[in-house]
């Protein structure tokens, strides 16, 4: 027969190599977007027209000589005690 020498089996180990298997799982991530609401108040003019009246009596220069002949002012008429036909006023007292 054929004669072989006695050589036991030997094992030599290389440094281990890592092989990664990536397995993905869904993960919920809340992305928060802050919103600030600002209420801005503005004054806008809205015009409401109001009218203020004032009344005054004047005694002007009537008559040919610039005086007050024949015409009396409203205050004079109110002070009058009698009836004055030209102004249609009744007796005050």
Structure in words:
The protein is built from one helix and no strands. It has one helix at 74-79. With 93 residues, the protein is largely without helices or strands. It is rod-shaped and about 175 Å long.
The largest pleated sheet is described as: none
Using only CA atoms, what is the Rg? 60 Å
The helix/strand order is H
Give the oligomeric state.
single chain
Residues in helices, as a percent range:
under 10%
- The dominant shape is rod-shaped
In whole angstroms, the N-to-C terminal distance is 172 Å
Q: What's the mean pLDDT score?
A: 77
Q: Report the uncertain regions.
A: none
What is the number of beta strands? 0
State the main characteristics.
93 residues, little secondary structure, 0% strand
Topology:
Elements: H1 74-79
Summarize the structure.
By secondary structure, the chain is largely without helices or strands. The protein is built from 1 helix and no strands.
